[in-house]
Amino acid sequence: MNEYTGLRYERIGNGKKTIVFVHYFGGDAGSWKWLANRLRKKYTCILLNLPGFGGTKPLAEPSIYGMAQSINDCIDELKLKDFILCGHSMGAKLVLYAAQINNGNLPSKLMLIAPSPPTVENMPDEERKRMLNHPDRKEAVNTVQGAAKKKMGKKRMLYAVNSQLRIEETTWKWWLNIGMKNNIAERIIGLEIPTDVIFSNDDPVISTDAIYNEVLPHLSSPSTVALSRVGHLIPMEISRKLARIIKKLNK
Fold this sequence. Notes:
By secondary structure, the chain is α/β, with parallel strands linked by helices. It has helices at 33-39, 64-77, 90-101, 125-131, 137-147, 154-166, 169-177, 208-215, 234-237, 239-249, and strands spanning 9-12, 17-22, 43-48, 83-88, 109-113, 195-200, 223-227. It is built from 10 helices and 7 strands. The chain starts with 8 loop residues before the first strand and ends with a helix.
């Protein structure tokens, strides 16, 4: 997979089960490639680029609805009928909303990895101010290093930094200033889809308290997988272990 494709989605694998992956803020479709390569024999992995990420055209006015609709548009374009929808961090918040508004074609399951809460993701003002300095390679490195707990190796580290630098500026500012503050909790009431929540007790970005107080209460009978000694970038930090977890949860 090229680092800068400009494509709306990439496909890895040709397995019987299909998983649609939606990346974190700072990432893009390629952020999943290490995980997808470990799933490709059993699953068809669809790796989405949200608008404004991975070289794709940004939305004229970014919004939770617009981002969620772009996920559903790709699902419709691919004519998927039996699929799992998986989101990481920002992507998790967006897949919840995408499932809510996609009444005609619901996923069979949701998987939320280190999810940004459907309520408000709290970020200290100083951290938001620092991150708004974009694109800036030094700050991108600081952001990735601050989010991870495990050494990812040079290739993964470089990808995580470069994917952040590729994000279109208006889209970048939208999530930091507006998107993460949008509360969609009331909008997803009644969304009764089996949901797995995979998170780390050592996540420096989304705390365990946020998972238990701001995420799980708004989901219908979620199952949880609590990890340790890993940070926020779970799909890149422990792709092998995460692949095993996903296979076990979706036998």
